[in-house]
Amino acid sequence: MVFNGILFNLECFLFVTEIRAQLVEQLKCLDQQCELRVQLLQDLQDFFRKKAEIEMDYSRNLEKLAERFLAKTRSTKDQQFKKDQNVLSPVNCWNLLLNQVKRESRDHTTLSDIYLNNIIPRFVQVSEDSGRLFKKSKEVGLQLQEDLIKVLNELYTVSPTHFLASFQTERRSIGLFPACC
Fold first, then answer.
1. Does residue 98 sit within a domain?
2. Alpha-carbon distance 31 to 42, whole Å?
3. 128-149 burial string, b = 16+ CB within 10 Å, else e?
4. Alpha-carbon distance 7 to 14, whole Å?
5. pLDDT tens-digit map of 148-167
6. Does any domain span residue 149?
7. What is the total count of domains within the chain?
8. Which of left, alpha, beta for 122 (phi over 0: left; psi -120 to 50: alpha)?
9. Which of the residues 61, 71, 145, 171 could staple to 23 if both were Cys, CB 3.0 to 4.6 A apart?
């Protein structure tokens, strides 16, 4: 019976050690998740920052293109006759196309501003919020782990007393019942 008590103590010790290792592994996983999410949010910020830059460059290039050809058409004699031509004239179609390009340029400028002033700051906010949540989760997890280890250690400490009392009770009960036949 003493051997069983020692065996139980060893099993308890191994169990507590295994639990402790699992808890440490869980915290490592939480840290890795946090790092991955922070990296993903950083990548998204970089992506939209670059996309905003590209949209702005595209907008400027469209604006330059439209201005260059508008200046060119203003200097031609065809512009003087514009009022006299019908609605579907090539000059009117050309002017509509150039005005459409200017609108498209403004749209791309707006899109760039949305990326820079709305989307990227939101990713920053989400990243900060995620960091705070992971930090709080880790603190709570650590506290719960400490409490669990404390309870397991108390159980580990109390178990030899339990086994000793159980062993003594068993010895007494054997002494009370004489061996039969």
1. yes
2. 16
3. eebeeebeeeeeeeeeebeeee
4. 10
5. 888 888 877 776 666 666 76
6. yes
7. 1
8. alpha
9. 145
Q: CA distances (Å), 55 to each of 102, 108, 114, in order?
A: 14, 5, 11
**Could you tell me where the DSSP H helices lie in 75-119?**
90-114
What does the alpha-carbon distance between residue 171 and residue 181 come to, in Å, rounded to a whole number? Answer: 20
Per the model's pLDDT, the better-predicted residue between 125 and 94 turns out to be 125
Q: Which residues contact 122 (CB under 8 A, 6 or more apart)?
A: none
**Which residues contact residue 3 at a Cβ distance below 8 angstroms, ignoring those fewer than 6 apart?**
none
pLDDT at 3: 54
CA distance 98 to 138: 58
CA-wise closest residue to 109 among 62, 45, 43: 62
HSE-CB of 5 using CA atoms within 13 angstroms: 14
Considering the chain, what percentage of its residues have pLDDT values greater than 70? 77
Task: State residue 158's pLDDT score.
Answer: 75
Q: Is residue 178 part of a domain?
A: no
Domain ranges, residue 111: 2-173
pLDDT at 37: 94
